[in-house]
Prior knowledge:
The complex is a heterodimer. Chain A is mainly α. Chain A folds into two domains: 1-68, no CATH class; 73-139, no CATH class. Chain A is built from six helices and no strands. Chain A has helices spanning 2-29, 32-39, 46-66, 73-98, 101-108, 115-135. By secondary structure, chain B is of the alpha/beta class. Chain B has two domains: 4-96, eubacterium ventriosum atcc fold; 120-209, no CATH class. Chain B contains eight helices and ten strands. In chain B, the strands form four sheets. In chain B, strands 4-1-7 form a three-stranded mixed β-sheet. The mean pLDDT of chain B is 82. The chains are: A mainly alpha, B alpha/beta.
Amino acid sequence: MFLNGVAMCIIGLCAGTMVAAGTFAFIVMIGIFTRMADRTHTSAYISIYENAVILGGAIGNILFIYNVRLPLYGAGLVLFGAFSGIFVGSLAIALAEVLKVFPILVARIKLIEGLPILVLSVAAGKAVGSLIQFIFGWT
Amino acid sequence: MSAELYIKIDQNVKVNKKKVLLSDIASLHCTNHDIKKELSNCMVLTITGSESGIYAMTVLAVIELIHRKRPDITVVNEGESDFVIEYVAEEDRNIKKKEAKNKGYEYAKVVFVSLVAFIGSAFTIMTFNLDVSVGDLFDNIYRWFTGVEKSGAPTILEFSYCIGIAVGIVVFFNHFSRKKLTVDPTPIHVEMRNYEKQVNQALIEDASREGKTIDVS
């Protein structure tokens, strides 16, 4: 019984460490936070952003695993929804950018003008797409 | 005997004056101090117009300017072959100063990005856990080790997983709060510098494509 506990403790620790390294290496390398820090001219504060990532990952995981209740109701829903939406939106575009979707597309069809419209269309398409998905319950 | 002048110019140089001297953009070294002093006052670029702007330049243009003054010396370039001069106009600098004084605005931005980072990370780890069915896997592992079904309440396994996640991120980012674990810069720090380098590279290539680079004619 005791040995089982020790073994599970080791497995849990190792699994957590590797999962964290993999998952968070991914969101850092994809460059969302560096881009945001640059756009807002707050690159002096990146250690705060790193702390936010550390706390977010650790606390979010605890909330998920232990099914913690946070009775914040509407305010909590809006806060979590809006900011996770911003994050996923940046993540999706960052992924498309890493895979060089837009440069290749633009070069293929020889698009010179209208790049802002392309970006806006992608944003609007994602918003409308997820709205439709949630309204019709396609999840 | 001709003297050798070593110059090193960074990829991105910020200037505030309209008359840009060689000493403003480059670090110079020469065994002959008089030559160094004479050439540091060599005019590199006169900025026309009062707006802030970015000027791409090649080191060849700089060498040409030096040779126009002193054809007898050898210039050794130890820095970039292309670089950008970023001119920040007086009024823009004042705006920046005002913005810097307005700490509230800056903190609001920091809070915004921090919230995205915090909630985004929480979201990421939860989607990961759900996506790969960490819960089901933990039920299996619990059964291997104890032989009984898990009753549903979190066990030592979940607890150590939570600790492991925190340890993993802290080790990966190499610091917690101000306390650094080692002297290496953190991954976000490295990515930040990488991003700035890519921006400079893009500016240089844009200017060269549009033929706006200041080069030897």
